[in-house]
Write a structure and sequence with these properties.
The chain is an alpha/beta fold and about 180 residues long. The protein is built from seven helices and six strands. The chain has a six-stranded parallel sheet with strand order 3-2-1-4-5-6, sandwiched between helices. Bound molecules: flavin mononucleotide. The site of flavin mononucleotide has 15 residues, from helix 2 and helix 3.
Length: about 180
């Protein structure tokens, strides 16, 4: 069955995580609605990820609280924020909802809907780590942008997909990006 997924994109490096995730969701028949922060739009251009837009079912303006995801009665199966900046992560952790992406994440937490955050920063300071701990306690899943190498990825896309596979599993989307380890060895 098709799931409606909300994808928030912030101005952290690694917009390719959003591109690959939305591409796979679209190919699997799950429509993706996008919300980008203003900085995300700039980083997207800098990282040459314009193809992200073509995988979106809808794109919502960051300052329009009249759009569906701002409401608890919306019907999204899950929200992912990828990549997630430390700034947006801190605001979600503090319950600050002063743009549509932040409000949508806040709605997911209050409605107990799956919320996956893909933070990208290095190194993390104590505030980042504390915010992540708060979010995990509030019900979010923190899936850091830490690709794995044990399947010997050959391309950057393969590497990125090791993170995307984990995100898909956490939002309960069936996929074949990472076969069970038992069938791999
Ligand atoms: C090219 C570029 C790369 C950045 N990478 C990161 C990053 O990896 N992680 C991060 O937390 N912030 C990063 N930043 C800083 C954020 O864009 C900045 O903190 C911004 O306020 C985030 O706002 P947003 O969460 O509303 O998008 C980067 C900025 C630029 C211009």
């Amino acid at each position: 069955m098709s799931k409606r997924i909300l994808l928030g994109v912030t101005g952290a490096s690694g917009i390719i995580y959003a591109t690959r995730l939305s591409m796979h969701l679209k190919n699997l028949g799950h429509p993706v609605d996008l919300i980008l922060t203003k900085t995300a739009e700039q980083v997207l251009k800098h990282e040459a990820q314009e193809q992200l837009y073509k995988y979106a079912h809808a794109i919502f303006p960051i300052d329009d609280y009249f759009k569906e995801p701002a409401s608890g009665s919306s019907s999204y199966s899950a929200m992912v924020v990828a990549p997630c900046s430390m700034g947006s992560l801190a605001k979600i952790s503090a319950g600050i909802a002063d743009n549509l992406l932040l409000r949508s994440a806040d709605v997911c937490l209050k409605e107990r809907r799956p919320l996956v955050l893909v933070p990208r920063e290095m190194p993390y300071n104590a505030i980042h780590l504390q915010n992540m701990q708060n979010l995990e306690k509030a019900g979010a899943s923190i899936i850091s942008a830490s690709p794995s190498f044990y399947r010997n990825p050959k391309t950057i896309e393969d590497l990125v997909d090791t993170v995307v596979a984990k995100v898909l599993s956490h939002i309960h989307v069936t996929h074949s990006l990472a076969p069970d380890w038992g069938t791999h060895v």
